[in-house]
Design a protein that fits this description.
single chain; 246 residues; alpha/beta; Rossmann fold; six-stranded mixed sheet; four-stranded antiparallel sheet; 12 strands; binds adenosine-5'-triphosphate; binds magnesium ion
Length: 246
Amino acid sequence: MLKVEGLNVEVRGKQVLHDIDLDIPEGSTYVLFGPNGSGKSTLLATIMGFSQFEVTSGRIFFRGKDITDAPIDERARLGIGMLMQRPPNIPGVRLRSVLKATSGDGMDVERAAGELNMDSFLERDINVGFSGGELKRSEILQLQAQGPCFLMMDEPESGVDLVSIQVIGKKIRDLIGGIGCGSDGSGTIRSALIITHTGQILDFIEAQKAFVLANGTIQCSGSPDVMFERIRRHGYEECIRCHQRN
Ligand SMILES: Nc1ncnc2c1ncn2[C@@H]1O[C@H](COP(=O)(O)OP(=O)(O)OP(=O)(O)O)[C@@H](O)[C@H]1O
Ligand SMILES: [Mg+2]
């Protein structure tokens, strides 16, 4: 589904990502761990195609197509979607309008909003004045409307209360489990790449593999639950040392 080869990325002249290789097959969910400032959000934003992230070398392929130089809207149309860590406010644009425009007739907006307890937010300007947890629910609703084949989620559970985490966890599980996406993606089984610090989302999804990204490089990979427990007990250092030895 997604292949990244030898990716080097600069932001404002500073190299943030070094030699990233990633291969996420169709129907797989991968998890990204790593300390603050290590480059996790940068990796997702680069795959999405945000223009401030400059690919200095390496390639990104999506469903076999080289999208390294493709604009962000083309990537979205091809079926890449992203839940942002800090989504922007969009004054003057109502949540309902965006959901309608992205989903067409493909989603019952009232029902989908109701499932995420977002009914009363449909007439509000996107993200303006939303609380931390409301922002995440709004982002998930927008992802659902888009229905991408490849879902990238940057800390989807951050700032979400213990009751709402049940609601969004199940919704994320259903989204990832969905089939069909993009303009010609019918029958495609979705894949996901999820960043988490707390690991809470792992209680709801079935992830096959996890990576630790530190200092802009993928340091190690393994089973998500085992790696999470190891980081919780020993921090990231063990993984970084192991990478340096190899
Ligand atoms: N637009 C930008 N301008 C300047 N520096 C940036 C920009 N975006 C990212 N960086 C820098 O790149 C590095 C990686 O940032 P990134 O947001 O990818 O980290 P992260 O791993 O997602 O961290 P966190 O866990 O705190 O979210 C940081 O040092 C950050 O300050
Ligand atoms: Mg981040």
